[in-house]
Amino acid sequence: MDYANRGRPQRPKKPKKGAKSNAKKASVARRPVPWLIVLLAIALIALFSYFLISINGEGDKHPATVTPPAAQTKPQQQLPEKPKERWQYIEALENKEVEVDVPERELGPPKLMQCGSFRQQTDAEQLKAQIAMVGLEAKIYPSDGDSGRWYRVVLGPYKTKRAAESERHKLQRNKIYGCAIWNWNLD
Predict the structure, then answer these.
(1) How far apart (Å, rounded) are the C-alpha atoms in residues 153 and 119?
(2) Long-range contacts of range 140-145, CB-CB < 8 Å, 24 or more positions apart?
């Protein structure tokens, strides 16, 4: 079969607008009304309504509980007297104070926060300026090691690690990352 010469498939032609609306009207007019279903629905609604009307108010005629005649002749018994409590701890706990020994928190060595270590002093001073823009004061400490001279940018000392963490979070909110908290003594 020659696929190139077979041609395009033909679509059915659409009827004109006026013809389309007439076709819909004709199809609606031809459908028979299901009178059997309509009559059945009306009968069910009527039966349900009759049922609701017939049970209206019958709940008041029947009492909720039926008491036997033997129970009506007996006199009601009195409840026994409430017993006294045997437990003494309730009054003892109301007036008791608890003493707890809390040891003092050991602070430990002061904390320092290092935010960078650079070969060039200009790089260290640039980071120090960024930290100053946040509102914190940093110091630059030069240190000599096996690999040459380094310039460390350090904040602190802090008495507690919590104070150092607070300032580190402040730096992180201003996009200065990489600060580490150490137990250092720079003396």
Answers:
(1) 11
(2) 141/186
Output Rg (C-alpha) for the chain, integer angstroms.
Answer: 47
- For the question of whether the overall pTM of this predicted structure is more than 0.70, the answer is no
pLDDT > 70 in the chain, percent: 74
Q: Assess contact for 154 and 186: CB atoms under 8 A.
A: yes
97 vs 95: CA distance, rounded Å: 7
Is residue 43's pLDDT more than 70? yes
Q: Positive or negative CA dihedral for 10, 16, 20, 26?
A: negative
Domain with residues 114-182, CATH architecture: 2-Layer Sandwich (3.30)
Task: Transcribe 43-106 into DSSP letters.
Answer: HHHHHHHHHHHHHTTGGGTS-S----HHHHHSPPPPPPPPPPP---HHHHHHT-------PPPP
Average of per-residue pLDDT across 126-154: 95
- pLDDT tops 70 at residue 89: yes
